[in-house]
């Protein structure tokens, strides 16, 4: 039911209670308001509370009403499926009411109303609220100072919101707003600027005529107008680097804004003493105007590159950086923006000369040519602005003035070294003056080759002026610190002028011998240098550098120790890290790192040191001697990290590396590991810990030598995790595999129902990619427990049958792979538990499941599966590569199945150069129109280069079909043509490729040998069925079975062979990997002789069907029959 005016007292009472300090009053009020916010009329009641004149003094209640109003607009203004939203009539009423209440006196309420109006405008403008901006502009003409300020506040919020919309139509609308609104806003900005300058003059004269409150409102209004102009120019015009259209407002605005800054700065000193409020406005205005200019330069570099714009800006910034007035020197925020502007200009790619050429005598001018011309002009102009002597001067000033620590910096360091470290070395470079100067210096160095010798000369001067024995903090020491920093930041270029080996042995290592507390300043920079120059440290210097870093880790100053920790991390991660040189330093290194974690307080510090520890664990091979120390450290660190998820993530990563480093001796840390795992893999664990928790769980199982009871008890947690999300299904699959191969029958007995539930949860509810990670596990389960598992996972098996009998996988590689894997699992079940599958295929629940999936067939389900098995193996053989090669003696190297021999006559014509309709070829071989030329052969490669499955062809039959081809010169063996298959193992890409975009190429099943043999065994069992339809498929079944027999077994892949070599020394250790390989090599499928099975089942089939069997055998093609005799060694 809708709320009305009569409900206002209730609403007001609830709002008043919601600002109460009494929790017993506040909580019920908040709950009641939450219940009311979705009811129609709620926002209208809030609007009445906000605008009520008699409640003007009730600021807290009105503010709370505005907050609930804003939240309701966010939730219900846009009509959604799950909520009715606000009615159009109420929306119209609220829009009108808001525009009639522009003169809100409370600034917080006004700001909240501006935000909610902008949220409405994002949805309603321009369709539902077309006159919004025009009404605001009209109100602005006759408004007083306060009202005009509020209107500017609303306009800024609206424009900011609309500028973030990314649809083309929305961007076009904003461009129209910019073109219509810019001139009006600019005129207001100029008018207010004159008022402000006049007011500043009166303030400086201490004139009583000035009304400071009104003046400050004008200042704030002008400041909002500045932000509006920025929004209009940045978002309302396409970047000129793309459009190459000059943006006139940039050329109009930038010089005037620069003049405004120059007009404001002289008042800086006079406002410091008497007018702190206006001083703050002056500071934020100068910074904002510089930021706006930087935004214009980055958005519209070519328009900003006009000489009338860029010249005064660059000159101004250079002058303020190199020769600032005393007051400006203390104005760090402004100097930062000057440096940011210079950095942005110097590294702007649009101002770099283009290195590409163009065609001679080409009259057509491309967009790239226009950019090249503009860039050349700007680049030449910048070169004239920054000649060599000015670059050298700027470099000197940056190092000697801005890099040097001040007395305040030194005091801050001594008071809180950890905080100082993060502020100087880890903070965003554009927020502090020194990091900003360093960023500008790096860009200057990259763009000017003459800077290198200057830096080396400053470095030499600083080292000569301050020997390593100095202990007093004096200007020479601080200059050396600055010079060391300058050398550290540009190691990649400075190495051309400076030998690190000589520098380290002659100066840096000597610095570390001075243990005076004041030398912490230099030691910190030495640690920085050792980390930055890691790529220049050669073998003979590496060991001394490691020793130096360990020494720095043991110093008393936290700032130095943290710098050393970070540099040590760089060395550990370096590809040339030498464990041999570092091994004897490990005990001291561990102790130093552990102590540093204890001593630091800030989160960032702990994470940094943990990264170093984790990286070191991952790089060294001998962790066992330090295992007890690491266990104690991790135990204490985990206890202290309670409630800090980000820190726990780092600890979980380090623990995973620790478990991997311990390898098959990881059980020594189980007392630490099991409680941690138990705490992070339960349903109550934070989501952000889930990924790292599962990776640690996986690592624990991977390196376990046996399934311990605690690990076994964790398995049900996996169901809870997957019930929350399938995001980590691949890791979950590895975990499940670990339980299967390590837990064996004990695992199955304890968690049979849980495992069934998990598989049922996943299969049918995840993508094909997810299924491909789970189906191999089902196959292993059936292999290990053929009697128990099929009945246990009956629902899952039914889903696999549905997958196999579904259509539409021919053009989707993932679906084809899923169907192949599912069919192989069902075939294995038939081979290893024949009675179960036969019973399941006649189960009414399966029939219902198939009907629900839209699958119907007149044949029995088992015979439908036979068709799938036949299709998978036949398709694999058919799509194997075949080679036609002509040598000078006309030898023919052939390898093909009997089913394609009939195509040989016209294939021969291809080699003779006769004209062939390639679509006919494609239809013959692929059974459809050719969609893409590359689907059959690359470029213009002849079909004779295509490789098909090697085969043995009856010589007489081959002569009959090939005609005039002389096969007598082919290699022969026992009455058959033995085919040369030297090219059999060539890269598949040499002959055929699947075009993912064509959609017309059939995906070739990647059926491995074990799957082919499983299919063949299952098909041979089908011969024992008392179904006459089996005889209709007899020739196909025999062809597939004999093809598998004659195809032989597969050897180990190269990857498996190399894995055997690498792990041969570990094979005697019980482990998941050993058990997995044992399962693979003891697969019953490999133990069952297919020849004997086929021979026995053929006899059974003959006994079952009698004369019908003989008739079916007589219809078999001669080549297929010959193949059968060879496979079964029949006379």
UniProtKB/TrEMBL annotation:
GO molecular function: small GTPase binding
Keywords (A to Z) from UniProt: Nucleus, Transport
GO biological process, one term: protein import into nucleus
SUPFAM superfamilies: ARM repeat
Cellular component terms per the entry's GO annotation: cytosol; nuclear envelope
Xref: Pfam families: IBN_N (PF03810), TPR_IPO11 (PF25758)
Subcellular localization(s) per the UniProt record: Nucleus
Domain Importin N-terminal: from-to ranges: 29-104
Record's keyword annotation contains Disulfide bond: no
InterPro entries according to UniProt: ARM-like, ARM-type_fold, Importin-beta_N, TPR_IPO7/11-like
Transport in keyword set: yes
Protein family (similarity comment): Belongs to the importin beta family.
Protein's name in the database: Importin N-terminal domain-containing protein
Annotated organism of origin: Salvia splendens (Scarlet sage)
